[in-house]
Predict the structure.
Amino acid sequence: MPSRVTLNDVAREAGVSLATASRAINGNKNRKVREDIRERVLAAATRLHYTPDATAQAMARGATTTLGLVVHSITDPYFSAIASGVMVAAERRGLVVTLASTQSNANREVELVELLHSQRARSVIVVGGRRDDDVALAAMTDVLGRFRRAGNSTVLVGQPLLGTDTVTIDNTGPATQLARDLHGRGYQDVVVLAGPADHLTARERAGAFADAFRELGGTVDVAHSRFTRDGGHHAVRTVLRRYRPELVFAVNDVMALGALAGLTEAGLSVPHDVGLAGFDDIDGLQDVTPHLTTVHLPLHDIGIAATDLAFAAPAPDPRVVRVSGTVALRASTPGPRRAV
């Protein structure tokens, strides 16, 4: 079996030093070689069928062609839709996306950013709402700051709390409008499946919806649970032990789908017995019966916007790109059926 061609072989073939051959092939952010020498080295590499070492190139240039993407969950369609946008935008730039999941563990999130830093990723995009946790916020602010000081960029999709460029989602405006629209359809009594009490995205959506619904004279009950399908399922079954509401609003669509299963198991029909609404407009909702009322967010475009921000010209202060959603009223909330 023939031995692998090395950079030493290329240097000898081109009649240059190993250092010159390395700078010609791998590049160097501090030192350049003359164009005629570079062409001679590249011609020698072609004749010998030399394959450059990606690690060596990263060492020479100070960064790889890797874009790091850190999400809370790869199974949640919310994150996968944003990831699809990141991958499209990265491919346009000739970059490869390294995708990692934190499983909603704040310590793991920090570890993953540190790992991407050690692997010389060009940039890192972190997707996910923050918790009301000063220690975790400080740890992420620190690790992202160190990543940037090494000459690379960082972008957060979530609340602008980490001192970095951020694509932030307007949770309160659409949640307020959704409450008004559903009250306008005749609903007077709602249970809000509010997610964890310390989850800032869940808190913003639940709080805005509940405040608007109460201001209109409606009755609001709030149930906290995990920000997951199983969390929505458990919460609605717990509520149904006490009473049956006219309407259930879940602060994300996966919770709403869990609630739909729980309502069905209890022998209730959506929308005839209970109205149901969510938030996000994740992929696959078109296959759910009845079609779910929700807030449509341009999730794929959010991924593209985050990547564009990561590779925009540096700015002296953190930039914030704000994205809002639109209410999509569908068959799951036609209005309550009341006895006459």
